[in-house]
Amino acid sequence: MKQQKRSEQRRAVVTGATGFIGEALCRELLTQGYAVTAVIRPGSTKRGKLEALQEPASQVMGVDREVLTSYPALGEGNGTLQIKELPLRELSHLAEDDMQADVFYHLAWDGSSGQEREQFEVQVSNVSYMADAVRAAKKCGCRVFIGAGSQAEYGIVQEKASEEKTVPKPFMMYGAAKLAAYHMGRLVAEQEGIPLIWPRIYSVYGPGENPGTLVSYLVETLHKGEIPQVTECENLWDFTYIDDCVRMLRMLGERQKAEGIYNLSTGEPRPLKAFVEEIRDVVNPGAEIAFGAKQANPNRTFWLDPEVKQIRMICGACRVAFAEGIRRKVESRRK
After folding, report:
1. What is the mean predicted confidence (pLDDT) over 311-332?
2. How many CB atoms lie within 10 A of CB 132?
């Protein structure tokens, strides 16, 4: 990529910048020459991981090596990073320093995992934060606002999930709050006169993901030589490698006329059992897996079969095959 003049440098704001996807998105934008403002919670213990993004991995000490060793050093790009500590309830203050940006990625979300996913008071607060973020984006001069939707908005859909045709029926507070944030955020965006893009992000995996995910559990358990305890894994699933996820997010922000909902996934679903066995074949070939050791609740078991025509028109197909992504995760774990 040719060196961009400072006046032509793309500028992006990323909230939730210390999260799994947020940190990877910052890295992706920096390698593409962006000036990134990363918004994090005050006193975040993960601030050092973001500060390390501007340094070659070999020069960084005391930072999660799993993440650092799985990407090229950022010295190859010409991006710049600014970190702003700000509580979610104060997102409206972002524009007070006359900060200007081109695209605003709002990934921050309270209660994105664990028991807080079902707590009304926690989840409903995110709707207000969404509105604050849209208004802040407008004040910062952004030409587009990108939120972070979820496949949880659809609920249980045992057919192809289409952005335009499928009626969302979330079964958990988290999915309902995401859906509400989209609709109310869309209306605020219309009032402010700024386009809103809502990628519904499907199951993302890779180096640096939460240790509580199925992929992390399987990799860790198989690596120890233990027997993973899982359900029959008969439901359809669709995994997206983290590099593909953030590449698609970046490209959505660069698209001049993109707006509305996009299912962000590979669009190559298989029975979950096939993915579990593929992980086993990469990590510990021939190892036993206890399928059926856990019982699945059919009323709370996702069936992931997304329609991805719209995202592919902009970003093309995903580039990292599942087995390759697992190999990268395993390799980064060893370093």
Report:
1. 96
2. 19
